[in-house]
Amino acid sequence: MTDRIKATVISASLGSSFMDTIGASISSPAISVFNSPRFAVFPGFCDVHVHFREPGFSYKETIGTGSLASARGGYTAVCTMPNLNPVPDSLEHLKMQLDLIEQSACIHVYPYGAITVGEKGETLADLEAMAPYVAGFSDDGRGVQSAQMMEQAMLRAKALGKLIVAHCEDNSLLRGGYIHDGSYAKAHNHRGICSESEWGQIARDLELVAKTGVSYHVCHISTKESVELIRQAKAQGLDVTCETGPHYLVMDDSMLQEDGRFKMNPPLRSKEDRDALVQGILDGTIDMIATDHAPHSAEEKAKGLEKSAFGVVGIETAFPILYTYLVKPGILSMDRLVELLCINPRKRFGLSLGCDYSVWDLQASYAIDPKDFLSQGKATPFTGWQVNGQCMATVCDGKLVYKAK
Q1: What is the DSSP letter of 116?
Q2: How would residue 36 be classed by pLDDT, with cut points 50, 70 and 90?
Q3: Residue 127's beta-bridge partner residues?
Q4: CA nearest neighbour of 148 among 105, 204, 215, 196
Q5: Residue 292 catalytic?
Q6: Going by DSSP bridges, is the β-strand pair 8-10/39-43 parallel, antiparallel, or unpaired?
Q7: With 0-12 CB in 10 A as exposed, 13-18 as middle and 19+ as buried, what is 99?
Q8: pTM to 2 decimal places
Q9: How far apart are CA 84 and CA 77, in angstroms?
Q10: What average pLDDT does this structure show over 353-361?
Q11: What's the distance, CA 230 to chain centroid?
Q12: How far is residue 332's CA from residue 137's CA, in Å, rounded to a whole number?
């Protein structure tokens, strides 16, 4: 890894002199390299799975607030999911989102186009018209239930040179579940979501990938079976990548509480699943970490595990959580974390890294408090967790887009 993209450390105190140094380097074509055990400069992180809720649901998040929250988390590029209103299933609908991005994003925001019209799984969206403007195609939030429809989408995406980015979920196996079908669900009389609802559709899709030759990416894997299926697919030479989220790597269903901020889809799984995911990021089966940043209103998340909306926020806490609970204990190297947060997602999705970087105080210690978030969403399972690592500044395209107060 070159110094240009390698995590480096800064020799300065974060006072005015340090910010002057950063300001001077903003116009530089390369990231300045410093030397100290406390401060680190990282290339701009890239999250290929976020929900900025606009157009259609700006009471949850906007492109403006979502991109600013991303900058606070050290991110300079994100890919936004298409469960919007209108769904970006045609160039006309997509243009509404592109215009909002142009008007209000402070970082690079790359939208996905939907796989099917309205994300209903019935008719292919206008993939050809959207292809030049999107990061890939996804019906995130809903699994494509028809194998025939998914095969058609894969063939069309392959012809267009675009990724299929799959939310894998078999609706016939959900049975009204809303947390993992594990020990917590049984002990507290909750309806569970079985692991097969995820890995079963991944297995189906991998057969279609072998048949069509499409470039395929799996969203937010959470089960040990999913890890093994993807490991086998890679061994067979299939063009497959995948992501998991920070919460799946440091939490499991034994840590659930009767609170909507612990409800996400897929759900927190068992300790065995968590261990398999960690092994997957260590051995390269899992290519990247994405937050699935999914803001909702306070009212939507205040209805307990059963009735709250699915989804938690995470883009402002991803690096501190991963650094504190995986890197500092020696589970994961810092170089590998940078690969997972920046290099691999950019490489897979063809997203360039210009003069984009963030500056971190690695010794800053604090408890996560959602009141500090710049996102409109405040529901996080990490409330109160003690972490190290505070983003002091983020630069995107040579411009200072975030500075800590």
Answers
A1: B
A2: low
A3: none
A4: 204
A5: yes
A6: antiparallel
A7: exposed
A8: 0.92
A9: 19
A10: 95
A11: 18
A12: 31
Residue type at 233?
A
Task: Give domain 45-350's CATH superfamily.
Answer: Metal-dependent hydrolases (3.20.20.140)
Tell me how far apart the alpha carbons of residues 375 and 62 are, in angstroms, rounded to a whole number: 9
Domain boundaries, the chain: 45-350
Q: What are phi and psi of 279, to 5 degrees?
A: -60, -35
367 - beta bridge partners?
386
Backbone angles phi, psi at 390, to 5 degrees: -130, 130
Q: Give the closest residue to 75 by CA, choosing from 403, 405, 398, 395.
A: 395
The type of residue at 23 is G
| Element at 229 (helix H, strand E) | helix 224-235
Q: CB-based contacts of 238: which residues, under 8 Å, 6+ apart? A: 206, 209, 210, 216
Cβ–Cβ under 8 Å, residues 46 and 77? yes
pLDDT in tens, 8-29: 333 333 344 444 444 444 333 3
Rounded Cα distance, 102 and 111, in Å: 12
- Strands (DSSP E) contained in 167-306 are 179-180, 192-193, 216-218, 240-244, 288-289
**Catalytic residue among 89, 126, 292, 356, which?**
292
Q: CB-based contacts of 57: which residues, under 8 Å, 6+ apart?
A: 84, 85
